[in-house]
Every structure is written in structure tokens, then in C-alpha cells.
Amino acid sequence: MVHLHAVPFLTTETTVGGEHHTVNRQKHDWGVEWRCRWTQERAGGDAVPTSSPQVCADPRPLTGEPLCLDLLNTRWVGGAGEKDLLDSVDGLAVWLRSAGLADRATADEVTLAALRETRDALLAVVDDGSGTARDALNRVLSHGVLRQSLGPEGPLTCPEVDDAAWLPAWLAASDYLRLVAADPRRIKRCAAHPQCILHFHDTSKNNTRRWCSMAACGNRAKAARHYARSKSSGGGSPA
Ligand SMILES: [Zn+2]
Fold first, then answer.
1. Which secondary-structure segment (H or E) carries 179?
2. Which helix (H) or strand (E) covers residue 131, if one does?
3. What radius of gyration do the chain's Cα atoms show?
4. Ion ligand 1 contact residues with beta carbon within 5 A
5. Using one digit for the tens of pLDDT, what is the confidence trace for 138-174?
6. Which domains are assigned to the chain?
7. Which pTM was predicted?
8. How far is the CA of 218 from the centre of ligand 1 (A)?
9. What separation in Å is there between the alpha carbon of 215 and the centre of ligand 1?
10. Distance (Å) from CA 149 to ligand 1 centroid
């Protein structure tokens, strides 16, 4: 049995189709600058002219979750409805940079399709965990393996994928196995679901976190409870 070690972000070598290579920074150095089309089209207000290349900020309300949940959190509900960072290659570039994968993957249509398929598979296993959902995730996992070796500093675990475009997707799927192995009860979706579709890894001592963020969904729920209480105790306005 392969021991899944949480090293994806530490390794800098990848094997694709039997060929071992280190990341080619020259070739993949698109991460420094890209056009801000995504921000302009989706974020409204602070539009940036498409003619001025610049680094886009990650527009998502929740970042920093483990990779598998961070991939799920590329979809969220904003003021004007549901948003999707992975609705374009530009958005993919933003996500790869946030995920620390900008120098290990190319923002292109093939990588985007692999990630979208993987996101659907992850959402299905998190939400219903059926055999069909597991099959879909296992298809993603079949694109790669973790190869173990002994390096000068000690044991190395290096992900190998059959196609470089599958590396980010495979790492996300593999990361989900890591969380399940640790404690599946800590993989949660925000208690405000379906008004909020974000997911998080509960690292609280007693596993009691309920909201993606207290500032957003937590306070909204508190206000709603307060309103319901004041109404039921006769504090509401007369009909
Ligand atoms: Zn939430």
C-alpha cells in the first residue's frame, strides 16, 4: 500500500510519461504576469483595462484550505450569484498561483478540464460518497502514483503523472485521501449551505467549527437567529 505523504508542495520533480524532469521554470514562467480579464469581467467595480498585464489577486472569499478543499472553493456564491474561478484559463492561472502550483503546471484548456472534472468528483465524494462518486475520484487518481526513493537527504516521495496536465488535479485528489485518512469528520461544508457552498478543514480542537468564516456566514446566522427570537417573543412590528 502506498503511504500518502503530504509532500506535493515540497517536491520539485515530476515524471511524465516515463520521463523524469525537474520543473522547467523558463517554459512555465507565465505566472508572473497575466492579463486581468477574469477580474474585469467577474468582479465588476474595480475593472482593470485588459491592455495592462498585471498580477490578479485571488478574488475568492475563502483561501488557504488544503488543496482538495481549495479546489472545491473555486466555486462560491457572491453578491450577484454563483461565481467560478475555473471558468477560464485566466482564472486557472490565478488558482495555480494561489495553490503554489504556478511553476509546476501550465494554465491551459487541458489542465483546466482536468481540474474541473476533479472538482466535480471531489464534490460528489464529499456530498454523497456513493460508489459512483468514488469511481469518478479513482479515475482521477489513476492518472498518477507516488514514487518512493532514497535521496541524499533521506526518503523522497515524488508524484508521477501520465500527463503533465493532470498534475494539479491528481495532487488535489491525492490530498483528499490524506484528509480522509487523518479524519473524514473534519472535512466540512459551511453550515450555511446551500446559501454558501464553501468547504473547509476543521482544525479546531473539538471539531466544532461550523462556518466558512465567522465574519460572513457565522454572523449572518447569528443575526437571523436574533431576528427569529425577537419575532417569536413579540418584538416584531404589528401586522
Ligand atoms: Zn459559508
1. helix 167-182
2. helix 131-141
3. 20
4. 190, 192, 196, 198, 212, 217
5. 999 999 999 999 999 999 999 999 999 999 999 999 9
6. 13-189 (1.10.3300)
7. 0.74
8. 7
9. 9
10. 41
Buried b (16+ CB within 10 A) or exposed e, 145-182: bbeeeeeeeeebbbbbbeebbbbbbbbbbbbbeebbee
Q: Which residues touch 50 (CB under 8 Å, ≥6 apart)?
A: 35, 36, 37, 40
Kindly state the cell numbers that stand for 70: 481549495
Look at phi and psi of residue 116 and say left if phi exceeds 0, alpha if psi is from -120 to 50, else beta: alpha
- For residues 151 and 6, give the distance between their C-alpha atoms in angstroms, rounded to a whole number: 17
**Separation of alpha carbons 99 and 61, rounded Å:** 15
- First-to-final CA distance of the chain: 67
The series of mean pLDDT values per 10 residues for the chain, 239 residues long, is 36 46 30 28 37 69 97 94 97 97 97 98 93 97 96 95 98 98 97 95 96 90 81 59
Residues 41-55 have pLDDT tens digits of: 333 333 333 443 455
For the chain, how many residues are written? 239
